[in-house]
Fold this sequence. Notes:
The chain has 240 residues and is α/β, with parallel strands linked by helices. The chain has helices at residues 22-31, 48-55, 69-82, 127-133, 140-150, 166-175, 226-232; strands at 2-7, 10-14, 36-42, 59-66, 87-91, 106-111, 151-161, 178-187, 196-203, 210-211, 215-216.
Amino acid sequence: MQRQPLGKGIFINVSKNHTFGTDAVLLANFAAAKKVKNHCDLGSGCGIVSMLLLKDGIAQNSVGVEISEEAVELAKITAREFAKNTFTPINADLKNLKGVLPFGVFDLVTCNPPYKAEGAGILSSGDKDIVARHETMCTLEDVISAASHLVKSSGSFCICQRPERLSDIICLMRQYKLEVKRVRTVSKKVGEEPWLVLVEGRRDAKSGTRILPPLFVYDNNGQLSQEMIQIYGDYKEGHL
């Protein structure tokens, strides 16, 4: 186990199997469009998205749902040390949350799900990598269905995914009464195709989608872009 600084005197506990990357930081930033009372992160891992939203005062309370007991134990240590009474890690399967969490009460739900559909691409070498990167334990539809049940009417669900899954996200969100309201692509630098897409769906909203300006991780000199520096803020270590 290691402790990584998030800024403002707050640390998060991670391990070799359960750490986080730039996509989680970008998801937290994208989801921080407005302050909320109740937040839930699905597939929360070590708790990074919850801790970033709590640290910056975006969420008052956060619940992290994670199927890995090892990751939940890490998150519980972080919660005890830095987020008492505001962060609640739960060891649960997001496909079976009825009776575990209340439905229709969360202002914001987030998820950094597995990117590769089951049966697509070469599987990663370790079991933990397979669960994190491939839809072996849950599908994109499972994630969106769970979010739809948890979020309240007019509440938001924010997700990050590979751009090739964008059409799946849009179709599934509408199927589960989550209307896509914001979309933003992320590229390594100007001129490169996006490697990530950020999407916000709003429960029971009218149609109408904003396509935000693209985000570039690096500038033309190969340095972090000014926007990325602002996103990292007082968290100085990039996980690219």
